[in-house]
Amino acid sequence: MGNRVFIVGVGATKIDEHWDLSLRDLMTEASRKAIQDAGLSKRDVEAVFVGNMSSGYLQGQEHLGSLLATWLGIPGVAAHKVEAACASGGAAVHSAYLAVKSGVYDCVLAVGAEKLTDATTSDATSALMMAEDQEYVAFAGFSFVALNALVYRTYMKKFGVKQEDIALFAVHDHKYAANNPLAQFPKPVTLDEVLRSPPVADPIRLLESAPLGDGSAALVLCSEEKAKRIGKDILIELAGSGLATDILSLHDRPDLTTLAATVKAKSSAFKQAGIESKDVDLLEVHDAFTVLGVIHLEDLGFARKGEGWKLLKEGQLERDGDLPTNTMGGLKARGHPVGATGVYQVYDLVTQLRGEAGANQVPDAEIGLAQNVGGVGGTVVVNIVRRVR
Amino acid sequence: MRSVPRVWRERVTKYRLIGGACKDCGKTFYPYRRSCPVCGSDNVEPRKLPETGVVETFSIVRSPPTEFVGQAPYVVALVRLDDGTLVPAQITDVEPDEVHEGMRVEAVLRRYREQGEKGIIEYGIKFRPVISNE
Predict the structure, then answer these.
(1) What is the pLDDT of residues A240-268, one digit of tens each?
(2) Chain B residue with minimal CA distance to A201?
(3) Using CB atoms, which residue from B29, B61, B78 is nearest to A250?
(4) Of A199, A247, B83, B102, which sits most exposed with the smallest number of CB within 10 A?
């Protein structure tokens, strides 16, 4: 089954509208922090995987692997960009995992970075739509929010669920972001504020949608031998990483209310980690829109179809509930710098497993699962981390 | 990013609504391609799709991509054609607030977007409400 893989260092910038920082500044800073956190030298890094979706369109900049290696001052290392729309970050973690698991490299960086505020809102909207079929779906004027709105409307109709029970996800995320210094919106919101915010693409309202922001997060992944040589008190294993695709466009799929790629990626990651749903102590779901958060709980096997919202309403997703979820603010309030999100999710899980989550700390968590979605489920990555005693 | 040949090469599938039918699993889909998106079979044939159907689900775009700025609010939908095929398209010739699930619609050729001031104008199929003759 290959070598075991350990996360020995993490680093991230605050998610924000960083007017004073460029894309390269952000990813260089996160990488430096992660290497420092690992207690390693940058010269220990043998390969770099950069998750990013839209640098070509938004910054006119591609070739991020060589760019980051150059700006980090480690020219010559293996390095390249990994792109899978909003799942680019998770896919970079997946690639880095495979690189260490295979035994080819002993020490690699998985970085996610995105800078959305170099563009106008309409340009960022165009960039996000590049996750979909350009010739037949983007062509027709759909926005990415509108695609998710189709899922939302279909879900509410099929299962008879009210919007107020789904929109609660935004309230949940904001509550935890309030205690996260890296979060883009560290403040609570009320359900009434969410439901009265303006519609972006009916029925999705502004406060049900993840914000546009900039940020970068990075992880240092090492082989078991190298991790043990570093000698940390708490060892965090990247115990499984599953990636799966689904039919790209919604109109080709048999069911709009389930993401088949989540089910497949989860099964693959569970098999690698040797665990089941009931073993998961801590969850990060890709709730770019409230309804997607609810659907993910179902597709990951924690609720029956049409009933994910009940976990939310019954308080099971709270810090002291049965299934603490998005306990650092989730996509809605920690923020969603698209290609960085999958790495932030793992960063947040590691923060919890190390006991460094402050007021959001979940007691005694051992196994965490991060689900990162590209497009409307065209790609899903599931990464599983485990604290090793 | 867009170009004349890029629009031109899609003209048959796009303007005539040419989809595909899978002879193995029975799925019909749009646009035509050589493999069935659901079962993966290559035993697929092109098929002219019907030009009438109903609105399956829809949304009103209020914050549009750059190419559609100035057109919002407008309605995007999945239309269930009479043979069961789902197609993505705009709903036109109707106020956004009047669109509803199950609304009967028919295909019309309409302008979608322009490739800048000097570029070509892209057309495609939109759907408008069917006006009853009864």
Answers:
(1) 999 999 999 999 999 999 999 999 999 99
(2) B61
(3) B78
(4) B102
b/e sequence A305-328, b meaning 16+ C-beta within 10 Å: ebebbebbeeebbbbeeebbbbbb
Q: Got the DSSP string for A96-159? A: HHHHHHTTS-SEEEEEEEEE-TTS-HHHHHHHHHTTS-TTTTGGGT--HHHHHHHHHHHHHHHH
**CB spacing of A145 vs B63 below 8 angstroms:** yes
- Is B34:B42 a contact under the CB 8 Å cutoff? yes
Q: Which of A137, A149, A153 comes nearest B88 by C-beta?
A: A137
**Paired tokens of A202:** 């009916």
Instruction: Considering only the beta carbons, identify the residue of A126, A157, A252 that sits closest to B65.
Output: A126
In chain A, what percentage of residues exceed pLDDT 90? 98
| Arithmetic mean of pLDDT, A160-173 | 98
Question: CA-based diameter of chain B, in Å?
Answer: 47
The per-residue pLDDT for B134 is 57
Question: Between chains, do A140 and B89 touch, taking CB under 8 Å as contact?
Answer: yes
Contact call for B60 and A202, based on CB within 8 A: yes
Nearest to A144 by CA among A126, A155, A129, A124: A129
pLDDT in tens, B61-105: 999 999 999 999 999 999 999 999 999 999 999 999 999 999 999
Cβ-in-10-Å burial (0-12, 13-18, 19+) of A115 comes to buried
Residue written as token pair 């899609």:
B10
- With a threshold of 0.85, tell me whether the complex ipTM lies above it: yes
- Is A158 part of the contact surface with chain B (CB cutoff 8 Å)? no
Residues 72-131 of A with CB under 8 A from B: 120-123, 125-126, 129
CB distance A173 to A326 below 8 Å: yes
Interchain proximity B30–A135, CB inside 8 Å = no
Does A157 contact chain B (CB < 8 Å)? Answer: yes
* Strand order across the A235-245 sheet: A78-82, A47-51, A107-115, A214-223, A5-12, A235-245, A379-388, A367-374, A282-284
pLDDT of residue B124: 96
When computed from its CA atoms, the radius of gyration of chain B, rounded to whole angstroms, is 16
What is the pLDDT at residue B38?
A: 96
Taking an 8 Å cut-off on Cβ atoms, the answer to whether A125 and B58 are in contact is no
Residues in chain A closer than 8 A to B14 (CB atoms): 136
pTM: 0.97
Length of chain A, in residues: 389
